[in-house]
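fwd from M.: "can u put these together and see what the complex looks like"

so here's what she sent:
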Amino acid sequence: MINETYKAMLSGKSIIRELSEYATARGKEIGYENVFDYSLGNPSVPCTDHYTRGMIELLENENPVTIHGYSPSLGIEQVRATVAESLNRRFGMDYEAKHIFMASGAAGALAHALRATTKPGDEVLTFAPCFPEYFPYVNTTGAVLRVVPADVESFQINFDELEKAFTPNVAAVLINTPNNPSGAVYSEDTIQRLADMLTDKQREYGHDIFIISDEPYREIVFDGKTAPYVSRFYDNSVSCYSFSKSLSLPGERIGYVAVNPRCTDADIFAVICGQISRGIGHNCPPSSVQLGVAKVIDEVSDLSVYETNMNLLYDALTRIGFEVVRPGGTFYIFPKALEPDANAFCEKAKKYDLILVPSNNFGCTGFFRMAYCIDTEKVKRSIPVLERFAREEYGL
Amino acid sequence: MINETYKAMLSGKSIIRELSEYATARGKEIGYENVFDYSLGNPSVPCTDHYTRGMIELLENENPVTIHGYSPSLGIEQVRATVAESLNRRFGMDYEAKHIFMASGAAGALAHALRATTKPGDEVLTFAPCFPEYFPYVNTTGAVLRVVPADVESFQINFDELEKAFTPNVAAVLINTPNNPSGAVYSEDTIQRLADMLTDKQREYGHDIFIISDEPYREIVFDGKTAPYVSRFYDNSVSCYSFSKSLSLPGERIGYVAVNPRCTDADIFAVICGQISRGIGHNCPPSSVQLGVAKVIDEVSDLSVYETNMNLLYDALTRIGFEVVRPGGTFYIFPKALEPDANAFCEKAKKYDLILVPSNNFGCTGFFRMAYCIDTEKVKRSIPVLERFAREEYGL
């Protein structure tokens, strides 16, 4: 018999995926260039030429038995060392290779880190608005994800609500900065305040509380700024990273867990992740892809288009009359919908071939997400359509 | 706190991995060419030139946003269709793309298929000798793996023991043909008899019993024969495949689940596998690797060295006086140890720099495994050493 638990998950289909499929189908009717598809967070810029050349060099010059051979289950030692050195250089950390676990993108990294730091019955806290897939990542472990209501003024952390949500069962706090879907980048103050609070809670409850930091957008930060590196603020922390956005390799499923050398059991954390992999038969990201990213470890794709698009959209949306917090990074913007029911709002937008994602699935109501990882030319063409939509439907 | 369940798994370290590490360390002392390392099942022949050229063509000529872009969570549609067509052509099946779920090698395929067909408390039966990683694959799902004692005469199935082991809680039977570690290839008679028995048990217990067929060695069969295709014999069956051995791509983590179109819930089985992936954050094998293998779907590496090595070893072992069943495929041979305690036997072999894996971890006692996916020249050099070992330690 097919497992009923997984069957039941089928009813919770991703609204983002459904909207993306709608956009594709609509594109077949009217030409995809006429659909303003802001649904999917799929990078629109190519990987760097160096990545492509590096992969070709590996294939042409190296022994295929080596480059396609088994990776150790925690990752290729030299790749882990390269990741550690890069993080140390860039963020003033002191990782060694043993603190790095190579994973299938941030999703795989998070799933491993969550399993390592929780047991069934534990609680994991995260903050609205949040990535909807956090629910399956946490809830299939036997732990429970609880979402702390948003700070809708700035999309930093609502500490009053966090205080109310805390219980002795909280084993981990899952954060995402720069944030999908709000585009907010947590300030140093926010992270320090969170660290101080968790330090107090650890003392009060007498057990570890980990910060699991989801960081795929770490390099997409605007106005020449950089995102504060979370693990510098709190010892019991792990960074979950993906090369999906920074190098535009989402389909290559490559990322890592970086374990804070000062966390509890820091020396065996990556080994524990390897044990988790054993059970799910995963056994590490592909060897060739590990070797490929290690060759370009400090590179990023040309990410400037995202800032260009953000500025265009932010200016247009505020001019039209939307309430919107200016994103500090990512390729998302998260304006307030023009009616309380974000689902109804996004449904009306479809009449204008504007594909917007309602906020309900991100754990808060009344907003919508636009993923502006699309051509700037299309962003520009969408602005008069947004204007017409706001005018005709809401009288703005 | 670090999860204690996973911590406890650390004590069950893989004996194969330990022996392999011992061989590497010993190689640093005396030169690896002097260590007769039969520990690891790591293919020794390269992938085909076509695979390498195909990957380079993809990287040079295709849009990087496409080849490194997100794969649908069940696999790239065209890749799934290509796999289905290949299986239909080769094995007379009638798969459609919807029956194929792309997975991280056979390990990932098995972990998904086992989760799809069982619930916590269910039993999964497998046959000794078996791959030790079956235990974490099954036991981390909440189901329980039970090992049916071996048919040590032929390493086909011991049906008397299977009958004794059956209970109404059995939800799946996990088989592996061609077999690691015995090298046995199940005959059509064996598979038909198993199918008939499971058909009866399904009727008796009133629920589905799936065959989960682990098939990474499907193309490594000797004497010009082919392995009977398991899903032709039984409707409630899924094939779990890896390109690791046939194309020598073990580190690329690429394989699939092929769902028998006549099994229960055949049309949603792959979709269920996608839901399982959601929870573990896996989201499909890398897009570029999927595209790469699809280009060479019917190809295999030059696998002839394995048959050459098998014949050399089989002839030598029988001449020396070992009892051994002649392998029908794979790159393993599984002789009887020269004393009842296989651990003691393999420990003594280390004195001769012969690295042999004792059978205890494969679920039966008194045998040892040799993985002869190594250079033929080294196999030849190992034979006088095997002779000396058998003579000096056991008087043969």
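replying to her w this: Residues 376-394 of chain B form the longest helix (19 residues).
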